[in-house]
Design a protein that fits this description.
It contains seven helices and twelve strands. It has an eight-stranded mixed sheet with strand order 3-2-1-4-5-12-10-11. Strands 6-7-8-9 form a four-stranded antiparallel sheet.
């Protein structure tokens, strides 16, 4: 899975200007420099760039990075194709983010590796801001969910989501007007908040945990939101 196909239709499928503003307001300005991991098509990253002196967006998919860069002709963001579990070439930052449940593409070991990398590439006192699927999503999709629609160019889409054990399986099918069908399969891991909290506390002080942006603590909802600060070194 590398968003090779979905990159063409990502904004048409999920772009939400109101939600983008919510993410930007939630993160706010917490320093001078920001790295946005798994930045996708860059909608949130570009808005955050207005709050920071230096902003970079990285994504595993070169196609997503090309789509993001094409929307940024003034080069307000440094766009990078790369794996967020390996930040060794990127220096240190005041803020590192990972949004829109992108951490759920990491299994447990990948999540731990990412936290290690974030810790090593944050400046002392730097901030980590991320969200992830709530456990409620597993129940929400245990009977399956299907969404269909048609884009402006006539392409029809079918989006199927199903849960099994601790995973969400998402299948996208795009039916082009020339009769071609394009398909992409995604797997996301829904992490236990107890595991997440334990791993975070090894490296960070947890400043805030909310559900769906502003509900305090872990409550019924779609996403858990974490704001954490790197522990000061002795």
């Amino acid at each position: 899975m590398n968003y090779g196909i979905l990159a063409r239709y990502y904004d048409a499928l999920v772009k939400d200007d109101e939600a983008t503003l919510q993410w930007v307001n939630w993160i706010g300005r917490r320093g001078r420099t920001l790295l946005d991991c798994a930045c996708g098509s860059g909608e949130i990253t570009r808005q955050l760039a207005g709050l920071y002196e230096q902003t970079a967006g990285m994504d595993l998919s070169p196609d997503m990075i090309r789509a993001a860069s094409a929307k940024d002709p003034e080069n307000t963001v440094t766009w990078l194709a790369g794996d967020m579990t390996d930040l060794d070439s990127l220096g240190t930052w005041d803020v590192i983010t990972c949004l829109c449940d992108s951490v759920n593409y990491l299994d447990r070991q990948g999540f731990i590796q990412w936290l290690d990398q974030v810790h090593d590439h944050l400046n002392d006192g730097g901030w980590l801001c991320f969200d992830m699927h709530s456990l409620d999503r597993l129940e929400e999709f245990d009977q399956g969910y299907v969404e269909t629609g048609t884009f402006d160019d006539g392409t029809q889409v079918q989006w199927v989501i199903e849960s099994e054990e601790d995973r969400l399986y998402q299948d996208f099918a795009f039916y082009l007007t020339d009769g071609t069908t394009l398909q992409e399969h995604h797997v996301q891991h829904v992490h236990d908040p107890a595991f997440v909290e334990e791993e975070l506390k090894r490296r960070f002080d947890i400043a805030s945990v909310t559900t769906d942006f502003d509900l305090p603590g872990l409550q019924p909802g779609e996403k858990y939101f974490y704001i954490c600060r790197k522990k000061e070194t002795a």
